């Protein structure tokens, strides 16, 4: 890891090492905020936290650049906390262990936190590096982005003075993001009364593993396997054909991550174990035929488990699982105005069943607010049919592209000068904070960009080292090209 911190540009990699050494799960960002405040104090930079716990650090202009428009650099400090099964990593206390893989950096069996740690580390570079040329800056470090853009939603209007916002939270170089989808979650809670298990039953633990997972917005178009949908599909067979009853399910950990693994415990008559095992092997073969090209490591297996005293009733097992089978998931509509962009999607993100409560979390996204809510209504209807209580989380707005953006035109010009080509202009199917921030500060001229990061929100997350260097150079050049005031 010491070698990684010495990579170029040191301004980013040394600071990213500091972030990796500092636990920063969503809602638990206090340690990293204190780190940033100490860095600011050491440099004599003024700073404040607003009532939403977002941190703003002011960096004066370099001599000769005082006449430039004040620019806000923005990134979130929290990270998605996903680990491979079997990992003992404690995200609340343990540092992220980086490792090199050719031109890529990943982490040891966990998410890396390059989303959005690389952007935050770049901002830290303006506190640690001398001689950088730029106008007046406000460094906006937001909190709790990954759990639902909460920091951005609670940003206090009127406190920041900048006119231009450079968001550093997109994940493909040579691209500028100028718009994004909005989103909203829902949680369905199905309460049931566990019933005693009769004589002649045995218990099985089922483990569905090996899926890639990924970002539930950006990666939803790839057709990756969803562990919750696949487990529900097999459990339908087990319940219908082998009289299985659900004891417990534990699958998915984040609303914005496509679930990679699902673990279920069931009971079924001992006399039907042979048929059950045969059906499980057949199901595994079917899934490999369907998605093996994109999910080559998919696996599902069962093993004997201790027989519990209670389980969900046969009727409730069927009802609940049918709702999971029938719940919408994946891409629902493609954009009719931007080719190749998902308009509306929903992710069956988390399923938890234990001790009389079954809870399902789904996350919907759309560039059209009415379409976002329509798919939430469809999911709500499915779960209300079984008597579940459904609660909607607060929705967040999308970001509508600004056809007259001065900053986008400036960024395009700088990109042509640096790389000899125009950047790709994109609207992404993800919930960037720009949509929420723009609602708080409607006058901001905004654009988002970043280095290449793959498979964010999964333990396979990795960042491309050469792209980080180009991202840094592009950011520095853009800041030198910020227009003058008035």
TrEMBL record:
Is Transferase a UniProt keyword of this protein? no
Which BP terms from GO are recorded? proteolysis
Q: Which residues form a coiled coil?
A: none
Task: State the EC number(s).
Answer: 3.4.13.18
Please report the stretch or stretches of sequence annotated as the Peptidase M20 dimerisation domain: 207-284
Report any Pfam family annotated for this entry. Answer: Peptidase_M20
GO annotation, cellular component aspect: cytosol
Instruction: Write the record's keywords in alphabetical order, separated by commas.
Output: Cobalt, Dipeptidase, Hydrolase, Metal-binding, Metalloprotease, Protease, Zinc
Q: Does the keyword Metal-binding apply?
A: yes
Name the reaction it catalyses.
Hydrolysis of dipeptides, preferentially hydrophobic dipeptides including prolyl amino acids
**Molecular function in Gene Ontology:** metal ion binding; metallodipeptidase activity
Q: Which InterPro entries match?
A: Peptidase_M20, Peptidase_M20_dimer, Peptidase_M20C
* Family note: Belongs to the peptidase M20C family.
- Which named protein is this? Cytosol non-specific dipeptidase
Native source organism of the sequence: Thalassospira povalilytica
């Amino acid at each position: 890891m010491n070698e990684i911190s010495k990579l170029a540009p040191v301004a980013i990699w040394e600071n990213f090492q500091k972030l990796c050494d500092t636990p920063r799960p969503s809602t638990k960002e206090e340690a990293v905020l204190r780190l940033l405040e100490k860095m600011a104090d050491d440099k004599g930079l003024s700073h404040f936290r607003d009532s939403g716990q977002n941190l703003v650090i002011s960096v004066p202009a370099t001599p000769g650049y005082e006449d430039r428009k004040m620019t806000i650099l923005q990134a979130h400090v929290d990270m998605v906390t996903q680990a491979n099964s079997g990992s003992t990593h404690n995200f609340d206390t343990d540092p992220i262990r980086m490792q090199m893989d050719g031109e890529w950096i990943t982490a040891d069996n966990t998410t890396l936190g390059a989303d959005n740690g690389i952007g935050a580390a770049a901002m830290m570079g303006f506190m640690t590096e001398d001689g950088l040329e730029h106008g007046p800056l406000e460094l906006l470090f937001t909190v709790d982005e990954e759990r639902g853009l909460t920091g951005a939603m609670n940003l206090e209007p009127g406190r920041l003075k900048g006119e231009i916002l450079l968001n550093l939270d997109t994940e493909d170089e040579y691209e500028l993001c100028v718009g994004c989808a909005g989103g909203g979650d829902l949680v369905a809670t199905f309460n049931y009364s566990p019933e005693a298990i009769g004589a002649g039953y045995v218990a099985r633990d089922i483990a569905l593993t090996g899926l890639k997972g990924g970002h539930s917005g950006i990666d939803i178009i790839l057709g990756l396997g969803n562990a919750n949908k696949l487990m529900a599909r097999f459990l339908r067979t087990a319940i219908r054909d082998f009289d299985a009853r659900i004891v417990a399910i534990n699958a998915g950990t984040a609303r914005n991550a496509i679930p990679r693994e699902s673990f279920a415990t069931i009971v079924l008559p001992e006399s039907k174990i042979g048929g059950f095992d045969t059906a499980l092997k057949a199901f595994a073969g079917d899934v490999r035929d369907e998605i093996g090209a994109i999910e080559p490591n998919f696996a599902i297996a069962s093993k004997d488990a201790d027989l519990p005293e209670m389980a969900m009733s046969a009727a409730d097992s069927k009802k609940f699982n049918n709702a999971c089978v029938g719940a919408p998931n994946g891409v629902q509509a493609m954009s009719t105005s931007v080719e190749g962009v998902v308009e509306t999607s929903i992710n069956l993100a988390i399923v938890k069943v234990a001790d009389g409560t079954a809870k399902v979390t789904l996350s919907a996204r759309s560039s059209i607010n009415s379409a976002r809510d329509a798919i939430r209504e469809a999911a709500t209807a499915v779960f209300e049919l079984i008597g579940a209580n459904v609660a909607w989380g607060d929705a967040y707005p999308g970001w509508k592209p600004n056809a007259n953006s001065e900053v986008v035109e400036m960024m395009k010009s700088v990109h042509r000068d640096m790389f000899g080509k125009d950047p790709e202009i994109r609207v992404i199917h993800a919930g960037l904070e720009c949509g929420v921030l723009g609602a708080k500060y409607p006058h901001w001229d905004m654009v988002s960009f970043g280095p290449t990061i793959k498979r964010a929100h999964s333990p396979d997350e990795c960042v491309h080292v050469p792209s980080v260097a180009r991202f840094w150079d592009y950011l520095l050049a853009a800041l030198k090209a910020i227009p003058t005031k008035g």
